[in-house]
Each structure stands twice: as C-alpha cells, then as structure tokens.
Amino acid sequence: MMKKLVLGLALAGGAVLAACRGDGGTAILANNGSVAFVRFVNAIPDSGAQDWRFVDQVEGSPTTFNMSFRGIFPGASYQQASSGSRHLKVFQSSLDQSYNDPTLASPAITSTVFVDTVLTLTEGHHYSLIAVGSLKAKTAKLLVLDDAFPDPGTSNVAVRVVNLGAASAIDAYASAAGDPSALPAPLVSNLATYAASPWATLATGTLHVRTNAAGTTTVPTMLDATAPAGVAADQANDLTAIGGSTIGGSAFTAFIFPPATAGTRGALKIAGTCPTNCTTAGAVFAVDRYPPSGF
Predict the structure, then answer these.
(1) Quick one: pLDDT at residue 224?
(2) Cα 295 from chain centroid?
(3) At 129, which CATH number?
C-alpha cells in the first residue's frame, strides 16, 4: 500500500512538473497581459510629497508613496502597467510618515486628491506621467508624455529636454564643458512650459545641459546640470550596462523643474533631491533607453 502511495505521489509530481513546461522543455512564464510602461514624476512646486495609485484595478497597477517634489518613480527605467483606459489618482501623502501625530496623518490629509484623471495607455508604449501646475492656484493636472525614444546607434546617445515650468519658455544648450564656458548653438530653442523637445542625437562623452529663459544668453546660465555618465557592461561579472552620456545606445531625458514655492512643503529639503531647498530651477535626468549589453 505504501509503495502505491509513493508511486502515486511521484506520478502526480511529474504531472505538475510537466504542466509547468512548454514545448521544448522551457519554463512557462506568467502572462501579464497587455501592458504599457510608465514612470511617475512630481513637478508640482507647492505640493510636498504625493501618493500615486491606479484605482480601477489591482493587477498591473504600479503604486508609489511619499514621492517628494522633483521625485521620479521608479528612479530608473519604467514600471509595467496594464494598458487600456486607466483611472489614476494622486493623493497628499501623510505629513507624518511615522503616523504618530493624528493631526498630520489624518484621513482628511491623506484623502486629499491633487490629480484625478482617466487616461489611455497603449500597449508597448512608454509614458512619463507628470503631476504639474499649482495646488494653491488650483491648476494641478496630469501631463502625459508618450516617450517614443529612438535607438541612437552604438556610437551616439539620444537626449531630450522637458520644461516643467522653470520659465514660460526656455533655451537649452548641450556641451562638454559647463559654466563659465561660452554657449554653443542651442540644442533646444523657445521650449514652452509643459512641452518636450524632439529627441536629439549626440556623440558620446561628458555632457552639460545648461538652461536659460528663452532669448537670454548670459553666463553663468540659470541652470547647469551634468548628465549621468552611465556605466559600461561588465560581462565578466554579469553586469548589464547603465545608460548615460558616455554609453552609446542610451536615451535619456533632462526634466527641467521650477523652484519650489517658498513657504510650502515642496520647499522642504530632501537629501539628494532638492539641494538648497529647491530655491532655484533644477534638473533631474531619467534614462529612457538602456544600451544593449552584448550578452
């Protein structure tokens, strides 16, 4: 009787293993359905931290909490999200992340909605979803960018600039040296608020992105930001390449942010996010396309 039980369990186990294999003996991967790829950006200068949630379904709905002004989630690349018509809300984060002070973590605070919108995500597309505008002025809204980044080839990188309100219109310059070197011809001219520039192809190398209000050519510029260099692939240690200005095949975005609004939670200093309390315009770079690693 015991031998029959053991044999039965062995056959059952074999059936389960067989069910987990496809033709050719390869493992069957979970099917996530139709997906797009998204990242979240907090560009509301008087908002403080935000919680982002898709509220229409649980599966295929990336979420992030307590994302400060000039924060980007995820910090690199994108998260999968189910495609189609999606309902997204951006909430006020608790003002006390320890939840020990009910006056700073009350339902009245955490249920405050900054953005409440329905958007369409197309399968296979990559999106930057950006909270912009002002809470005080009641102009907060969601800016949706279909990133559509190119393949710049193995010897070049692709770069674009997004004006999130640093000035009503900006000019941006790209060069190997920053202030106080002379400005080259503009990479981007007269880029309006909440607009993204076309993608530009540049040779690999050190890259400074300098920005002024449109029509202003003074040096030092309003903003001088050094793009991340990136890291080459390391096959010996099985490490894939990280996108940046020195790594061919990369594509990345320079998000140009306005100063935080003085006297609001957006002006709080967050280490590594808002140097000098965000009192001046700032840039945050996000990698859109990681270069091929060759293995």
Answers:
(1) 97
(2) 26
(3) 2.60.40.1120
